Amino acid sequence: MIAATPKLALILDKRFAKKEGLYPVKLRITYKRESKYYPTGQDMTEEDFVRQRDCELMRSKKYIGTKEYAQLSAISKSLNKHVDEANSVIAKMKVFSFDLFEGRIEQPSVELDNVFIAMENKIALLKSEERIGTALTYENALTSLRKFYPKRKLSLASITVRFLREYEKWMVANGSSLTTVGFYLRNLRAVVNIMIDNDKQKLDEYPFGPRRYVIPTKKNSKRALSNDDLRNHWLSAR
Q1: Any idea what the Cα angle at residue 109 is, between residues 56 and 183, rounded to 5°?
Q2: Over the stretch 163-210, which tens digit does the pLDDT of each residue have?
Q3: Could you tell me the CA-to-CA distances from 171 to 46, 85, 166 in Å, in that order?
Q4: Per the database record, which ranges form the Arm DNA-binding domain (predicted)?
Q5: Total H helices, total E strands in the chain
Q6: Which residues of 125-135 are buried (b: 16+ CB within 10 A; e: fewer)?
Q7: How far apart are CA 87 and CA 100, in angstroms?
Q8: Would you give the distance in Å from CA 119 to the centre of its chain?
Q9: 217 band by pLDDT with thresholds 50, 70 and 90
Q10: What is the pLDDT of residue 236?
Q11: Ranges assigned E (strand) in the chain
Q12: Which of 48, 126, 163, 211 could covalently link to 131 via disulfide, CB atoms 3.0 to 4.6 Å apart?
């Protein structure tokens, strides 16, 4: 048995709002005042999250046996399975560490190859390290990417030279300078590198670099810095 037991909880991560009032449900593990968040692959409204959490109380309201109860109960059992699996892994550890835990826990396959989720995890890590300024630049990049690519999942294979060039054109067409494009794409490249280094996802062709896609820099943009550029530059330098 490990000396100190981590605390586990299912939470609705309101930092990352999605369409129609949906938020990702995550498993939060707290150990020695440090918290990390792990995706469950489930998105819910705040109301439904509370109702599934308390669905067993619906028995007293004679909801048992209804279609509504069955749906909420199934979601609740699915989410709590993540807690049970995490507890099972932790119980076998003599000394807990997040790195060791992450090497043993099975993550939802639907989320492993999702750049959006990888960026969310990066933001959560930066915030846990109190690197708020840098976290904000990643949040801005994520918001921009979601607007450009309004789908639930952005796979690693989707990050091609063509994708990056089209994203750059879209940003410029919507009023961003190449300097801002550079800020956002350097953040995206950092997340892509993390996903590749994980050895769980591979790219047929790495899209960044000479003869592929070169991230715009201050040198190849003659446009004056906008207030947005100056703000991003100040934040990244913190």
Answers
A1: 110
A2: 999 999 999 999 999 889 999 999 999 999 888 875 555 667 889 998
A3: 32, 42, 9
A4: 11-86
A5: 9, 3
A6: ebbeeeeeebb
A7: 14
A8: 5
A9: confident
A10: 43
A11: 7-12, 23-31, 34-44
A12: 126
Q: Which DSSP category does 3 fall into?
A: S
Q: What is the CA radius of gyration of the chain?
A: 21
Cα(162)–Cα(183) distance, integer angstroms:
19
Which residues does residue 213 pair with via DSSP β-bridges, in sequence order? 208
Do residues 64 and 128 make contact, with C-beta atoms less than 8 angstroms apart? no
Q: Which residue has the tokens 């989410």?
A: 79
| Residue 81: strand, helix, or coil | helix
φ/ψ of 132, rounded to 5, equals -65, -40
Answer CATH for 113-236 from 1.20.120, 2.70.98, 1.10.150, 1.10.3470 = 1.10.150
Beta partners for 34? 31
Any idea which residue has 């100040």 for tokens? 234
- Give the bridge partners for 37, in sequence order: 28
**First-to-last C-alpha distance (Å) of the chain:** 41
Coil, strand, or helix at residue 27?
A: strand
Domain limits of the chain?
7-105, 113-236
